[in-house]
Specification:
The complex is a heterodimer.
Chain A: H1 2-20, H2 23-44, H3 47-50, H4 60-90, H5 92-98, H6 103-131, H7 139-168, H8 171-176, H9 178-186, H10 199-207, H11 209-222, H12 228-258
Helix pairs in contact in A: 1-6, 2-4, 4-6, 4-7, 4-9, 4-11, 6-7, 7-11, 7-12, 11-12
Chain B: E1 5-14, E2 18-28, E3 33-37, H1 44-51, E4 59-64, E5 67-68, H2 73-79, E6 80-83, H3 95-105, H4 110-123, H5 139-151, E7 157-161, H6 169-186, E8 189-194, H7 197-203, E9 206-211, E10 214-219, H8 221-228, E11 232-236, H9 242-248, E12 254-256, E13 262-266, H10 274-283, E14 290-294, H11 298-306, H12 310-313, H13 315-319
Parallel strand pairs in B: 3-8, 3-9, 6-7, 7-8
Antiparallel strand pairs in B: 1-2, 1-4, 4-5, 9-10, 11-13, 11-14, 12-13
The chains are: A mainly alpha, B alpha/beta.
Chain lengths: ~260, ~325
C-alpha cells in the first residue's frame, strides 16, 4: 500500500517534470488563456458598468480569472492524455506494465500529475491577475477553494484525456478532441456572464455544466453572492471527475485484460 | 528444478484472424542462453510479449520462473528483467532518473537501488552520461541503459527482444560481452530474440528458429548445422543466367535456394567438386563473377527448413549498417 503510494508519487513527479521539460508543448497552452484574458480585459474593461445585466464586479479582470483557469484545466487534460498516449506509442507504458509496479499507480500517477500541474497553473494565472490589480474577495480561503475546484476539474479533463489515450493509443487522436473542449467552453459563461446572453445561446449556457463550475470559482474571486454556487460547482465538478476517472479506469482495465 | 521458461502450445491470434504465434513449445533450463531466431514478423516479439505478461495468449500455457504468465503475472514480473525492442526509454529523463524510477517501481530499497544503479552505470560505461537526458544518447548507449534498467533488480531471467538491432559492431560486441558475463557470473537465464545469424551463433547455447509463428528447428548451433550437413557453394552469375546455370550444373550437387543472381549448391564432397563445376559453367558459356564455398551456417539451416533465406530478407535493413558475416 505504501509502496503503491510511493510509486504513484514517483510517476506523478515524472509526468510533472517531463511536462515542464517540454516547453514547446506547454508554452502556448499556458499562454493562450492569459492572452485571451488580457484581450477581453482590454476590450471590456468598462463592461461591468456599461453592459446591461452584467453582475456587479470590481473590474473585468476579476471576472475573467475563472475563465482563464477553466481554459487552463481543459488544455491540461488534453496534455495529460496526449502524454499518456505518447507513453503507449513509444513503449514506455509497456515498460511500466512489464514491471511489478502497482497497476493503480501506473494510472493514478498520471492523474495526480495532471492535478498538481493544474493547481500550479491556476495559481500562476491568479498570481499574474493579482499583479495586474485583481483581487480575491474571499481571501486565502477563497483562493484555496478555487484551487481545489481547479484540481477536481483537472482530474475530470485528465480522466477524459487518458480515457481517449487508452482507447485510441494515439497522441494525435487525443489532441484532435481539443476543439471539442473549446466549443464546450465558448457555449458557457466562462467569458461572459449568462445574464448578458439571450436566446439559444443562453439556453446552451444554461445547460452547460461548465457554466456552473466557472461561476462557482468566480463567486470566490468577485465575492458577494451566496456560497450555494460554490458548493454546487464543487459537487458538479466532483461528480464529473468521478465519472471521468471511472471511465478511464474501465478503459485501463480493459486494455490490460485484452492486451 | 522446473525450467526457467516453459511453454506448451502457445498461440496468439490477433483481430482479423492473424495468427502471429502458432503452437510454440519451449523448455529452457535455468542458466541457459536461448536464441530465438527468425525474420521480421515471424512471431518472435509476440512470443516475448506473452512470456513477459504484456500480451495474453489466446491458446496454450506458459510458465516463467515457475509462475503462470496469466494467473500469476505479478510473480513473473518480479522474477524477470525485460529489455524490449526499440528501447522504449523516456527521452526527457536522464539515465540516473530512470534508474531511480525503476528502483521505486520494483520496490527496492533506496540505498540498494542507488548502489546497484551506480555499479551498473559503471559496468555499462554510462557513468559519464548518467545525468544527461536520454534524448542525447546514441543508439548503443540507449540499449546499454535499457539493459541496466532491466538488470537493476537482479532478475534470474532476462528477456532481450532484438537487443542489438541497428547497432554498430563495437556497441553490439559490448552488449554481447555483458550478456555472456551475466550468464557466466550470475547464472542468469537469457531469452533473446534476434534476426542476426551471427548473434544467435555467438551468444546462444541453444537456438530456436521460428518462421510463420512456428518453431521449425531447435538445437545447439553446431547440431543444427550438422543436420544440414554439406558445405554450400554460392555462385554469383549474371542476373538472368540463373536457370541456365542450374541446368548446366545438374547432377554436380544438390540445388539449394539462393537470391537473385545467385546459384547455390550443396556439395557433399566439398572443394573437390569445384573443378567439375567450373568446367560445366565454362562449357555452358556462363562466366561467374564469384565462387564462395562455405561451411553450413544457421542461414543454411533456416533455408533448409523454410526454403527461404534469412539473409536476403533483412538484407535491405542491414545494408545501412554492418554487413554481417554470413559465411565464417
Amino acid at each position: 500500500m505504501i509502496l503503491a503510494l510511493r510509486q504513484t508519487v514517483a510517476l506523478a513527479r515524472r509526468s510533472v517534470v517531463n511536462t515542464i521539460r517540454l516547453p514547446q508543448a506547454w508554452f502556448p497552452a499556458l499562454f493562450f488563456p492569459l492572452v485571451l484574458m488580457s484581450i477581453f480585459t482590454g476590450s471590456f474593461g468598462d463592461a461591468p458598468g456599461n453592459l446591461p445585466g452584467f453582475p456587479p464586479v470590481r473590474g473585468f479582470l476579476d471576472f475573467a480569472i475563472a475563465g482563464a483557469v477553466l481554459q487552463g484545466m481543459l488544455i491540461g487534460g488534453t496534455t495529460a492524455g496526449a502524454a499518456f498516449a505518447l507513453d503507449i506509442e513509444g513503449g514506455f507504458f509497456d515498460r511500466l506494465v512489464a514491471s511489478p509496479a502497482s497497476r493503480v499507480a501506473i494510472l493514478f500517477g498520471r492523474l495526480l500529475g495532471a492535478v498538481v500541474l493544474a493547481m500550479g497553473q491556476a495559481l500562476l494565472y491568479i498570481g499574474i491577475a493579482v499583479i495586474f490589480g485583481a483581487r480575491i474577495e474571499n481571501g486565502p480561503l477563497g483562493l484555496l477553494v478555487v484551487l481545489v475546484i481547479a484540481g477536481v476539474l483537472a482530474m475530470m479533463t485528465g480522466g477524459i484525456g487518458i480515457f481517449l489515450a487508452l482507447r485510441t493509443g494515439s497522441a494525435e487522436a487525443v489532441q484532435g478532441t481539443f476543439p471539442l473542449f473549446f466549443i464546450l467552453l465558448f457555449f458557457s459563461s466562462a467569458f461572459f456572464p449568462r445574464e448578458t446572453m439571450t436566446g439559444w445561446f443562453r439556453t446552451l449556457a444554461d445547460l452547460n455544466p461548465i457554466s456552473y463550475i466557472v461561476e462557482g470559482m468566480r463567486e470566490q474571486i468577485v465575492g458577494g453572492a451566496a456560497a450555494g454556487a460554490t458548493a454546487f460547482a464543487l459537487a458538479l465538478a466532483a461528480a464529473l471527475a468521478l465519472a471521468a476517472v471511472a471511465a478511464c479506469s474501465w478503459a485501463y482495465v480493459r486494455r490490460l485484460a485484452t492486451a | 528444478m522446473p525450467p526457467a521458461v516453459e511453454a506448451h502450445g502457445l498461440v496468439r491470434d490477433f483481430k482479423g484472424g492473424v495468427r502471429a504465434v502458432d503452437g510454440v513449445d519451449l523448455a529452457i533450463p535455468e542458466g541457459e542462453v536461448y536464441g530465438f531466431l527468425g525474420p521480421n514478423g515471424a512471431g518472435k516479439s509476440t512470443t516475448v510479449r506473452m512470456l513477459t505478461t504484456l500480451l495474453r495468449p489466446t491458446g496454450g500455457t506458459a510458465r516463467v520462473a515457475g509462475h503462470d504468465v496469466v494467473r500469476d503475472a505479478g510473480a513473473v514480473r518480479r522474477a524477470i528483467g525485460v529489455a524490449l525492442q526499440d528501447a522504449a526509454i523516456d527521452p526527457l529523463m536522464s539515465g540516473r532518473e530512470l534508474l531511480r524510477l525503476q528502483t521505486i517501481l520494483h520496490g527496492l530499497g533506496w540505498a540498494t537501488g542507488r548502489a546497484r544503479a551506480s555499479e551498473l552505470l559503471d559496468r555499462l560505461e554510462l557513468t559519464g552520461a548518467a545525468d544527461r537526458r536520454v534524448g542525447t544518447y546514441s543508439g548503443g548507449m540507449r540499449r546499454r541503459l535499457d539493459l541496466a534498467l532491466a538488470l537493476l533488480h537482479e532478475p534470474k531471467i532476462l528477456f532481450l527482444d532484438e537487443p542489438t538491432a541497428g547497432l554498430d559492431p563495437p556497441s553490439r560486441r559490448t552488449l554481447w560481452e555483458e550478456v555472456r558475463r551475466l550468464n557466466r557470473e550470475a547464472g542468469t537465464t537469457v531469452f533473446l530474440t534476434t534476426q542476426y545469424l551471427e548473434e544467435a551463433d555467438q551468444l546462444a547455447a541453444r537456438v530456436g528458429i521460428i518462421d510463420g509463428g512456428k518453431i521449425v528447428a531447435e538445437g545447439t548451433p553446431a547440431a543444427l548445422k550438422a543436420e544440414v550437413g554439406d558445405p554450400t557453394l554460392t555462385i554469383t552469375v549474371p542476373v538472368g543466367d540463373e536457370e541456365a546455370s542450374r541446368a548446366a550444373l545438374a547432377g554436380l550437387g544438390a540445388a539449394a535456394p539462393g537470391g537473385e543472381g545467385q546459384v547455390c549448391l550443396r556439395l557433399p564432397s566439398g572443394a573437390a567438386a569445384l573443378p567439375a563445376i567450373v568446367r560445366a559453367l565454362d562449357a555452358a558459356g556462363i562466366s561467374p563473377s564469384g565462387l564462395d564455398l562455405a561451411q553450413p551456417s544457421l542461414d543454411d539451416v533456416f533455408a533448409a527448413k523454410t526454403g527461404r533465406r534469412l539473409e536476403a530478407e533483412d538484407g535491405a535493413e542491414r545494408s545501412a549498417g554492418e554487413p554481417l558475416a554470413a559465411t565464417p
